[in-house]
Amino acid sequence: MSNRPPIELAGLFYGDSPFQVPDGSLHIASRNVYLRARGRLASRRGLQRLFKGLRYRKILPFGGGYFLASVTVGDVLELVLPSGPVGSVGTVPEPTTGRVQGASAGGRFFVTGSEGPRVLDSPNSAAIRRMGGPIAPSIGNASTVVGTNWLEDQKRVAYRYVLARQTETGLQILGPPSGRVIVSNTAGGARDVQAEFVIPSGLDDTHFIQVYRSAQVDLTVQPDDDLQLVYERHITSSEATAGILSFTDVVPDALRGEYLYTSPNAGEGILQSNDQPPVGDTITLHKERLWLGVITTRPETFFRIIAVGGTGLNTDDKLVITGPATPLVYVADTDFTVVTGGSTSQNIEETALNLVHAINTDASNDHVWAEYVSGPDDVPGEIRLYAQNPEGLGFALFVDQNVAGGAWSSRTAYAPE
């Protein structure tokens, strides 16, 4: 047995030469130990290292666990629960402040981002989603077809649709309704109705569509906006990819269901539509309400078609939307049809709806949505243009009219950034 006495631990020492350091000193201090007492080393309590290779700038509590907002990756949210790391629940582009913020409400977790707030429905959710219901851009190519023949001859009806999803706890998140489309039957006999519904990008087969219809009225009467449910089903993955859902309405009036939540008499009115929340740099829960601060609303502008045919909108007239890298150009009777076969108001309305659908189904357009906003008590032809991205760049609308006269309510309209 060695007669050398045990070395007494002396802690961390620095020196120009190893010969100047006393026995028992440490030359490195990264072993998670400390001198509990003179001559005794003990393990230092510390934290388990999670998701090695990433650094985090924000810790956000939720569901008994917490979120980690990554610095290295920039916009990845990692979820950690008491049972251990869950992993990434998606990406959230950072808000303009450069700091992700979050708040819990109603068992759900909300977080800010430059493309609008996102939500995680529960700690067990697979992915974080955009807050609010999806936008329903437009209905197009609506026409009458032979079938069960519920729409009487010389009658017309109005349609809107809503896109929605249901959370794991059964909460339905309905988006804002689409603009109205009116379908008239002049075929000489009763008919069904078929139409196309635009599906925005980012949706999947967890989302569903609801189609609402008015009661049928005479051709000279404007259908009211108390619309009732005639169709509901989940969107297929192929429809989500294509961006179009086709539907043939075979439901007789007697089987229409519940009213659309924005119905003026049976619901809350169109001004209470569930619009997606704006971009916000801060978010907090106060008095059981969720608050967004430092908000940025979508760029938007309005214009109106005031005449078609004659001195109004005619073949080869152009509408140009600048803002995208390549301006969007829509030529009358090339990209959308100018209708002249009905009454003045019907011609304006149907032409405006054709233009809206052309903008929303343009494969080169990832910049703006168009919405037909004229209601049953409004002057026909009113169109809203708004950015697809909640924090999208501004745009301008220019009209090139080849004939004298007035087809548009504004020849130039701007949507500021």
Question: If you had to describe this structure to a student in words, what would you say it looks like?
Answer:
- Strand 9 and strand 10 form a beta hairpin.
- It is built from 2 helices and 30 strands.
- The model has no long low-confidence stretch (mean pLDDT 81).
- The radius of gyration is 30 Å and the shape is elongated.
- With 417 residues, it is mainly beta.
- Strands 14, 15, 16, 18, 19 and 20 form a 6-stranded antiparallel sheet that branches. The protein has a 4-stranded antiparallel sheet with strand order 5-6-7-8, with no helix packed on it.
- It has helices at residues 237-242, 344-360; strands at 11-12, 25-26, 33-37, 40-43, 56-62, 65-70, 76-81, 84-91, 102-105, 108-111, 118-120, 129-130, 139-145, 155-166, 172-174, 181-185, 192-198, 207-213, 217-218, 228-234, 244-249, 279-286, 289-296, 300-304, 318-322, 328-331, 368-372, 382-387, 395-400, 412-415.
- Helices cover 6% and strands 38% of the residues.
